[in-house]
Amino acid sequence: MRLPDAEELFQILAKKIRSAGIQNIALVGIHTGGVWLAQRLHQELNIQRPLGMLDVSFYRDDFDKRGLHAQVKPSEIPFDVEKSNILLIDDVLYTGRTIRAAINELFDYGRPGCISLAALIDRGGRQLPITPQYVGAELKIPDNQMLELQRDENDKLSLKIYDKTSNHE
Amino acid sequence: MNSRNPQLNENGTLQHLLTTEGLPVSVLLHILDTAESFVGVTERDVKKIPLLRGKSIFNLFFEPSTRTRTTFEIAAKRLSADVINLNIAVSSESKGETLLDTVNNLSAMNADMFVVRHAQSGAAHLIAKHVRSDIRVINAGDGSHAHPTQALLDMFTIRRYKREFRNLRVAIIGDILHSRVARSQIHALTTLGVPEVRVIAPKTLLPKMVERLGVHVYHTMEKGLKDIDVLMMLRLQNERMTGANLPSSEEYFKYYGLTPEKLSLARRDAIVMHPGPMNRGVEIDSAVADGKQSVILPQVTFGIAVRMAVMSILAGNQT
User: Fold this and answer.
1) Mean pLDDT, to the nearest integer, of B259-276?
2) Is residue B287 helix, strand or coil?
3) Are the beta carbons of A109 and B317 separated by less than 8 Å?
4) Angle of helix B25-42 relative to helix B148-162, nearest 10 degrees?
5) Among A47, B191, B205, B270, which lies 20 to 30 A Cα-Cα from B134?
6) Residue B258 has what pLDDT?
């Protein structure tokens, strides 16, 4: 399968968010790919509020099967979540379970005014009633394959697809 | 169970935390790194995460303890586990059988994890060997053998203040002979690559052949504290002293009590640690305990995050 260029998708996504013209928004990236995107968007869209980052490992629903991820990164929400207008950012939207975990985690910081969702790619296959407000592209990927965002040493983003060896999500 | 190291299974996955001895550096670092994420959780408004929801953790304390038991309890509750505290005082005659019977009964109540404190060295090992393979055991101190979570929270504290282990000189000071904390600290420090670990104590409070653990032995603070980055004080364990190890606590304070004058022999940016409870005026002077270089209270705070990390890693690891 020929994959789209991640840098182009990023520009499409940034444009969509910019043209929505949301006021006083706070960005929260989901580790790891979502954080890369959120950092770029934070600059590109000149967002005033500090950037948040979530590692949803402590909120996953498959802890009993998979245990704790080898490298859990600290979650950091450097703004008051209470009544905030939050845009969650992830790289690849798939089953929706990561987003469920992220929403639950955000609520443990406070009661947000509103949460919306941006993803670079929506690959379908949802298992929960979760819909993104902003996507770079929709791309049908078979369930036996993994789609991953990667970043090289010059911060250039690219997409990689490979066969699943273990159930990843 | 791995016959060489009963804490690990055949795949090298941590099943129980019994001692820091023989734990690979990767396991130690995984615990420390995970604890970093839990520090963030303990600073939030809602200090609770759903990770161990539905799990039952039994705190089995056969020996009195306030701080350790409480921090384990808080850690388990912040992970959303159900915690059952059992303070069981046992008479010295009824060891082995009673212990395993107790464990059998609690296992029948569907325990998922035991946190064990016992006056007998090896009690947690015995329980770990005995329980069903899906039950996890954490040693919260056994006799004068090991206290791995204390050592891990000490390592976490050192890394927080000093960043790197590989350029440090660390001194463990006081009653090494009776101290399970000291043993666990020494194993953890050497595994994490601390190049120089010293013990400072009178001859009567040092175990025989302590040098075999890879430490340098000093009998005076004047020599031992030179160039030290981290001072790990130990409590003088009156309750464990059977013979005449010491003339008096006043005498001990004079030679080994950490006063501001003795602390000034170490590096200027040295940190002072103590596992608690402190005997002020015996092993440590109040001016030091409450002073700028003391990190004794942060140790307690980090202890919760480190115990959350140990519990969640154990609970999540496959049998």
Assistant:
1) 97
2) helix
3) no
4) 70
5) B191
6) 97
Q: How many Cβ pairs within 8 Å bridge chains A and B?
A: 50
Q: Six-digit token pair at A85?
A: 């207008």
Tell me: the pLDDT tens digits for A11-56? 999 999 999 988 899 999 999 999 999 999 999 999 999 999 999 9
* Cross-chain Cβ contact B36/A75 below 8 Å: no
Rg (CA), chain A: 15
Give the residue from chain A lying closest to B30, CA to CA: A70
Q: Residue B41: its chain A contacts at CB < 8 A?
A: 58, 75
Name the residue among B36, B44, B318 with its Cβ closest to that of A108.
B44
Q: What is the phi/psi pair of residue B314, to 5°?
A: -60, -45
| Other residues' Cβ atoms within 10 Å of the Cβ of residue B246 | 17
Query: Could you tell me which of B265, B317, B234 has the C-alpha nearest to residue B10?
Result: B317
**Closest chain A C-alpha to B38 CA, distance in angstroms:** 7
Q: Give one word for B299, left, alpha or beta, with left for phi > 0 and alpha for psi -120 to 50.
A: alpha
Cα-based angle A128, A133, A137 (whole degrees, multiple of 5): 90
Whole-complex ipTM: 0.83
What count of other Cβ atoms lies within 10 Å of the Cβ of residue B37? 23
Residues whose CB falls within 8 Å of the CB of residue A164, separated by 6 or more in sequence, listed in order: A143, A144, A145, A146
Asked if residue A48 lies in contact with residue A73, where contact means CB atoms within 8 angstroms, the answer is no
Q: What angle do CA B208, B212, B215 make, to 5 degrees?
A: 100
